[in-house]
Amino acid sequence: MSKQLSKDRLILVCNDDGIFSKGIQALADVAAEFGEVRVVAPDRQQSAVGHSITIMDPLRASPFKMASGLNGIAVNGTPADCVKLATDQLLDRKPDLILSGINHGSNAGINIIYSGTVSAATEGTILGFPSIAVSCMEFGEDADLSGCMEAARRAVSFVFKNGLPRGITLNVNAPGGPFKGIRWTKQGDSRYEDEYVLRKDPMNNPYYWITGRMEILDEGMEFDINVLNDGLASVTPIQYDLTAHKVFSTFSEMEI
Amino acid sequence: MSKQLSKDRLILVCNDDGIFSKGIQALADVAAEFGEVRVVAPDRQQSAVGHSITIMDPLRASPFKMASGLNGIAVNGTPADCVKLATDQLLDRKPDLILSGINHGSNAGINIIYSGTVSAATEGTILGFPSIAVSCMEFGEDADLSGCMEAARRAVSFVFKNGLPRGITLNVNAPGGPFKGIRWTKQGDSRYEDEYVLRKDPMNNPYYWITGRMEILDEGMEFDINVLNDGLASVTPIQYDLTAHKVFSTFSEMEI
Predict the structure, then answer these.
(1) Looking at the domain that runs over B3-187+219-251, which CATH code has it been given?
(2) How many CB pairs under 8 A join A and B?
(3) Residue-by-residue pLDDT tens, chain B, 256 positions
(4) Scanning every residue of chain B, which has its alpha carbon at the shortest distance from the alpha carbon of A112?
(5) pTM to 2 decimals?
(6) What is the CATH number assigned to the segment(s) A3-188+219-240?
(7) Chain B contact set for A52 (CB, 8 A)
(8) Partner A contacted by B60 (CB < 8 A)
(9) Which B residues 11-40 touch A at CB under 8 Å?
(10) Do residues A229 and A215 make contact, with C-beta atoms less than 8 angstroms apart?
């Protein structure tokens, strides 16, 4: 790619951990290697909000200085809100790419359904922009994101080289630590087996709090979680068409 | 189906409009024709929360008397929270079916991505229970839900007769008014074209508020929105596996 071209590219960076997180700064740094960067992200932690959007309340956009000195915009909404508002109102031109992450915590298997990180990228895809979600298996703010950054770099290069078919988003995950390779994967069926803990508050009223542990239900290296557990990064092409095409023709012959 | 059998069935009913809504009472009435009913639903309006779950806060469950006199349980969480908490803690046995709705407003085309109604049913499917989402095209609390109730009845009968393959949810929509027929459909690509209105608050600070209008992008009666606009009910089999299988084999041969 020529430097001339890359200077003209505009890349929108969003996340769900909040604009102040280490992960979004790392992803903005990767984005800067490919074009001009705009960061528009939630003003607070928004994990597990899924594809939530704000319709009953107004949204506000405030300037936010990133750790690198970059001027970002903080929005009091969800990741999907940020992408909608940025592309409709806050950017001076349409982005060539939307990146979401780097999330602190993986988004693989069933868990991508709950992910604000993935939903920001999916929202970008719905709006017609090539979009990539990037997540790191390590939760901590001190996680080594170098391998995730390289995985993101590979995915961004892939998209600028090949484009993405309409309706397709890339979901990238990587372990913490240095890059050891990346594989194309499918979304696995692994999930958190949730349990609720029943406790009493100081007024002796009961409340429930979710807890859970990851249950590995997939066999084979075509699945995201197994590739990650093997120390490699994964990239899964995902779609927002939820139609169960594999049963549609059978069902459509059955009486209802 | 024998009455003996139906008495043994337990049906969990949830929604996203809140436990006090007219739609959930109508769906509980349909459920009562097929088995014993438990209602566990959000204590407030939760539209457009998508597949959001509550992980950073405790959940509380409070008794709620339904309009019909049925004892329901109101939860201070999202639709997906309600399904998780009900099946893990609040029900005395596992449900044979989970119903979500009747939503006031359709969940067809792209919009199902944002839907709390659909996410409650999807959560049921993830947890291994046959699950159905039901939505009505009319928003008003005075909408005639009779056609939606019949569409729900057809879908419930279908599931109790045929079962549902693992990982498949039924997404049912119907116009307001009397039942005129039901068709198997695919999720269309139609969506709201969003725009944000920029206004000033009483302190002269700017804020944005989402607005939009439905954009019909699908041609053909295999798509949900077109069937609905033709006055019929639609039922779409959907899945939570987001892998874009149609591009996977091509992508997996390409360098990344």
Answers:
(1) 3.40.1210.10
(2) 202
(3) 444 456 689 999 999 999 999 999 999 999 999 999 999 999 998 776 777 888 888 999 999 999 899 999 999 999 999 999 999 999 999 999 999 999 999 999 998 998 999 999 999 999 999 999 999 999 887 899 999 999 999 999 999 999 999 999 999 999 999 999 999 999 999 888 889 999 999 999 999 999 988 888 899 999 999 999 999 999 999 999 999 999 999 999 999 9
(4) B242
(5) 0.92
(6) 3.40.1210.10
(7) 48-50, 52, 114
(8) yes
(9) none
(10) no
